[in-house]
Design a protein that fits this description.
The chain has 245 residues and is α/β, with parallel strands linked by helices. It is 52% helix and 11% strand. The mean pLDDT is 95.
Length: 245
Amino acid sequence: MRIGLFVTCLVDALFPEVGKATVTVLERLGHEVDFPHAQTCCGQMHINTGYQAKALPLIEHHAETFAHCDVVVAPSGSCVGSVRHQHAAVARRAGDLALAERGEEMAAKTYELSEFLVDVLGVTDVGATYAERVTYHPTCHSLRMLRVDDKPLQLLRNVRELELVELPDADQCCGFGGTFALKNADTSGAMLADKMSHVLETGADVVTAGDSSCLMHIGGGLSRLEVDTRPVHLAEILASTGGPA
């Protein structure tokens, strides 16, 4: 199986350790991972802000870049959601039926990390050890677009030495939402305050999620509160074999 790593813009630019952790987990399970160096933005940012015509070259480039892979895995429910639910629709709306077909083919083989591990590989124990108290925030795209359900929790429950604590009102948005946090800063901040309050209520050392974007938002808020609770991506926990990084 040729697994292509779709690392995403945010991970590539700001959180490269998340991409490395994803590779570590997949290689530990005996799989070879290909990182196509030509990959760029998938176009989600353009689509979500109304520049759908500008996204078409990015959608085409994404399809070409990962065409040789049997499956594509990303540590991001948000970006996988775009590939799976937006690419073909945007191409079809533009009248490019050939690209829409390629988009559908790409959607069928693209997975968020936890769903690939659980649904495709049938693995819930990746051999990880992480001696921390952890709470899990299900991000909006992974929860509502991809329906990953409790797959991340299944993986976390099998991490040795990890104490998993339930997050109150876990299904509530953290307030990031891409440009929503910029265009609606007051509302975003209020939502973030609620999320941080619930995270701190758990007494967790770590809040984890499957999207670096949401963790960046939550982590920024926590840093301003000067608390010890910190954000760690799910992939980094699953890659760990002996405690916190």
